[in-house]
Design goal:
With 639 residues, the protein is of the alpha+beta class. It has four domains: 111 residues, Serine Threonine Protein Phosphatase 5, Tetratricopeptide repeat; 285 residues, Neuraminidase (6 Propeller), CATH 2.120.10; 83 residues, Immunoglobulins (Immunoglobulin-like, Sandwich); 118 residues, OmpA-like domain (60s Ribosomal Protein L30, Chain: A, 2-Layer Sandwich). The chain contains twelve helices and 35 strands. The longest helix is centred in the last third of the chain and has 21 residues. The chain starts with a helix and ends with a strand.
Length: 639
C-alpha cells in the first residue's frame, strides 16, 4: 500500500511538471535573447481568446516577423492594431510589409496609408506617396528570364548569397551542418539562437557546364569559417584577397543587452589573405564605423571599387548602397561614396551587382514591388534611367534577392525563399517552345472540351494556362528545356497532375486521360476516398489532396447530421513519438480544410496514430509499402 501511494505521488508530480503554467517572464526572456522559436511558443501559451492582452499579440507578431512567417505575422499585427489603433506606427508598416508578402497588395496599401499618416516625415512615406498605386498586377510585367534548380541547394538548410569567384567557381552562404558525425555536431557546432540552426558559413561550388547543375560543394578553408555567422563573400581579381560579411565579434565589437546580460553582434565587412589553400590574417575593413551594419560586398572586375550595403551616417533610411575605391594592393581604401537617391530610398537597398554592360542590379523592399525583397536593375550608362523591377517570375511575393549574371555564359543565379526556405536558383533568358496535346475521357476515350490545364515549374510558379478546344486539344508556349507539372482540372472529373520536360523543338504529348468522379462510397463504416498526399515530413494540404477533400465536403453537405473521425497514419520510418506528432498535425490540417470550406467543427474529430497501425506490417518496407501505410481514414461516428 505504501509503495502504491509513493508511486501515485510520483505520477502526480510528473503530471504537474508536464503542465507547467505559461510564463510571460520566460517568454520575454526568450525574446530578449532572440530565441524567437521558443519565445513564440511561450507567448502562444499565453493566448486567452478575446481576453488576450494586446502585448501578447504584439510580441507574437514580432516573433513571427523575425522568423519570416508572414501569414502569422500579418495576422497578429492586425489583431494588435485592431485592439489598439494608437500603437507605434511602425506596426502599420510591418503589417503592410507582411501583407504584401502574401500578395494582399490592396490591404497593404491601406496599412501603408495609416503608416504614412502617423509618420509623414519618414523617407518611406515620401516614396510611398509618390508610388502608392504601383503595386503589381498578375501578368502585367512578365520577366524575360526563367528560374530553375541550381544543384547547390540542401533540402533542409538555407543556401543563398552567391558571387562569382572565377568563371567556373561560385561562392555562396549556407547554414548546412559542417560536421557529419552527430556527436561532433553536439560538441562543436555553434547554432543561431533565433532558429536553432547552425551558424552560416561560406562555401564554394564548381560549375559543371552551362547546361548542367552545379556540383562539388565544399567549405572554404581557413579562419573564415569558425564560430561566427558569415555572409556574402567576393574575391579580389588577384585571387589573393577575399572580402566577406561576418559578425562584429571578429573585431571584438558588439552591443550589450543588459536585460539578459548578453552581447549582440552586428554584421560588418572583413578581408582575409590567401596562404596556400587557406585564408588567414582576417581584418576589419578600415572604413567601417563602429555601431553600424556593413553587408554583402561586390567588387568590380578591375578591382577598383567595392560596392556594399550599409546604414552608416549619410544613409537615407535602412540599408543604402555605397561604394569605396580600392588601390592596387586591395588593402588601401578611399572614402565611401553614397550612390544617391536615384537608387536609394527610405527602404532597404542591398546586394549590389554590376554586369558587363554596366547595369546595376540590386535588391530592395521598397513599396511597389511584389512583396518582401525584389530585384531591380538600373542602366548606369543612362543618367536619366530609373530602377526597373525585373518582373514576375524573377520576383514573387516572398523575398527574392542577390542577382548575379554572367553574360558570356548566358546564365546567372538568384537567391529566394519563395518555397519557404532560402535557396539558390539558376536563371536563364527565356527560350520559348510549343507543347501540344489532347485530353480524353479515360474510359470512353471521348475528347474533352473546356478542360483547364495549368503548367507550373518545380517551384509551382505558373508558366502557362490554357483550355482545351472543341476537339479536346491544347497548345501552349513554355520555356525550352524546362521541367514542368501540368495541373489538369474539369468539373465531374478527378483532378490530375502530369510531369514533363520541354524541349527546344515543338512537342506533342501523349493523350491525357481523366477519370470521371463518383460519389464517395461507404465501406465498413468508413468514407472511402483516394489518397490525401502530403509532402515528406510536412502537414500541408496539397493541390491533389484539396481536390479530393472537396469531394468529402460535398458529401458531408449532403449528409448534414453526419459526424466523422479523421485518423491519420504515417509510414514506419522514423521514431514513433515524432510520427504520432506528425500524423496528428496532418489530421488537424485535414480538419482545418473542412472547417474553411464551411463544415461545422462539431462534426469533425481528429486522431493521429503515427505508425502504430500499419496497413502493411513490414520491417524493411519498400517505397510502395510505405506509401500504403501513409494514409488518412474517415470513420463515421454518426450518420
Amino acid at each position: 500500500m505504501r509503495k502504491a501511494i509513493v508511486f501515485l505521488f510520483l505520477i502526480l508530480a510528473v503530471t504537474a511538471q508536464g503542465k507547467r503554467k505559461p510564463s510571460l517572464k520566460k517568454a520575454d526572456k526568450y525574446f530578449a535573447r532572440t530565441t524567437y522559436v521558443q519565445a513564440k511558443d511561450e507567448y502562444t501559451r499565453l493566448l486567452r481568446g478575446r481576453h488576450t492582452p494586446n502585448y501578447i499579440y504584439q510580441q507574437l507578431a514580432l516573433c513571427y516577423d523575425e522568423l519570416g512567417l508572414s501569414v502569422q505575422a500579418a495576422q497578429y499585427y492586425a489583431k494588435a492594431l485592431e485592439q489598439d489603433p494608437a500603437l507605434n506606427v511602425e506596426f502599420y508598416y510591418r503589417l503592410a510589409y507582411n501583407l504584401a508578402q502574401n500578395g494582399r497588395y490592396e490591404a497593404a496599401e491601406v496599412a501603408m496609408r495609416k503608416f504614412a499618416k502617423g509618420a509623414p516625415e519618414d523617407a518611406r512615406t515620401h516614396y510611398f506617396l509618390q508610388h502608392a498605386k504601383e503595386y503589381p498586377t498578375a501578368g502585367a510585367n512578365p520577366s524575360t528570364y526563367f528560374v530553375e534548380e541550381s544543384g547547390i541547394n540542401d533540402s533542409f538548410y538555407a543556401d543563398h548569397s552567391v558571387s562569382w569567384s572565377t568563371t567556373d567557381t561560385l561562392l555562396f552562404v549556407s547554414n548546412r551542418t559542417k560536421y557529419k558525425q552527430k556527436w561532433v555536431r553536439r560538441l562543436f557546432e555553434v547554432r543561431e539562437k533565433g532558429t536553432s540552426l547552425p551558424n552560416t558559413g561560406i562555401y564554394q561550388a564548381m560549375i559543371k557546364s552551362k547546361d548542367e547543375p552545379v556540383y562539388e560543394h565544399s567549405l572554404v578553408r581557413g579562419r573564415i569559417n569558425r564560430r561566427f555567422m558569415d555572409g556574402q563573400a567576393v574575391m579580389h581579381p588577384s585571387n589573393k584577397l577575399i572580402y566577406f560579411t561576418s559578425e562584429s565579434y571578429r573585431h571584438r565589437k558588439f552591443r550589450k543587452n543588459k536585460t539578459v546580460k548578453q552581447r549582440q553582434g552586428m554584421m560588418s565587412l572583413f578581408w582575409a589573405e590567401r596562404k596556400g589553400k587557406k585564408w588567414r590574417k582576417i581584418k576589419v575593413l578600415p572604413f567601417v564605423q563602429e555601431g553600424f551594419t556593413y553587408v554583402n560586398p561586390f567588387i568590380t572586375p578591375k578591382g577598383d571599387y567595392l560596392y556594399f550595403a550599409s546604414n552608416q551616417p549619410g544613409s537615407i533610411g535602412g540599408l543604402d548602397l555605397w561604394r569605396v575605391s580600392i588601390e592596387e594592393d586591395g588593402k588601401t581604401f578611399g572614402e565611401p561614396e553614397h550612390l544617391g537617391d536615384r537608387i536609394n530610398t527610405g527602404y532597404n537597398e542591398d546586394y549590389p551587382f554590376i554586369s558587363g554592360d554596366n547595369t546595376l542590379y540590386f535588391t530592395s523592399d521598397r513599396w511597389g514591388g511584389y512583396g518582401g525583397l525584389d530585384i531591380y536593375a538600373l542602366d548606369l550608362n543612362d543618367s536619366q534611367a530609373k530602377p526597373q523591377n525585373l518582373g514576375e517570375g524573377i520576383n514573387t511575393p516572398k523575398d527574392d534577392f542577390n542577382w548575379v549574371y554572367n553574360s558570356q555564359r548566358e546564365y546567372g543565379f538568384l537567391s529566394t525563399n519563395r518555397i519557404g526556405r532560402q535557396d539558390i536558383y539558376r536563371v536563364k533568358p527565356i527560350c520559348g517552345t510549343q507543347v501540344s496535346g489532347v485530353v480524353q475521357d479515360g474510359e470512353t476515350k471521348d475528347v474533352l472540351a473546356g478542360v483547364q490545364l495549368t503548367f507550373v515549374d518545380i517551384s509551382r510558379q505558373v508558366l502557362a494556362e490554357v483550355q482545351t478546344d472543341a476537339q479536346g486539344r491544347f497548345t501552349v508556349e513554355v520555356p525550352c528545356d524546362k521541367a514542368y507539372v501540368i495541373k489538369v482540372e474539369k468539373e465531374e472529373y478527378f483532378y490530375k497532375e502530369e510531369e514533363g520536360k520541354s524541349k527546344k523543338e515543338e512537342t506533342d504529348l501523349k493523350p491525357i486521360l481523366l477519370r470521371k468522379q463518383v460519389q464517395p462510397q461507404i465501406q465498413d463504416n468508413k468514407i472511402v476516398l483516394n489518397d490525401i498526399p502530403f509532402g515528406f515530413d510536412q502537414a500541408t494540404i496539397t493541390a491533389v489532396g484539396a481536390h479530393e477533400l472537396d469531394r468529402l465536403v460535398a458529401f458531408m453537405q449532403e449528409h448534414q447530421t453526419m459526424r466523422i473521425l479523421i485518423v491519420a497514419h504515417t509510414d514506419q520510418v522514423g521514431k514513433e513519438k515524432y510520427n504520432k506528432k506528425l500524423s496528428q498535425a496532418r489530421a488537424d490540417a485535414t480538419a482545418q480544410y473542412l472547417y474553411d470550406k464551411g463544415i461545422d467543427a462539431q462534426r469533425v474529430e481528429t486522431k493521429g496514430m503515427g505508425s502504430s497501425e500499419p496497413k502493411v506490417p513490414c520491417k524493411t518496407c519498400t517505397d510502395e509499402e510505405n506509401q500504403q501505410n501513409r494514409r488518412s481514414e474517415f470513420i463515421i461516428l454518426q450518420r
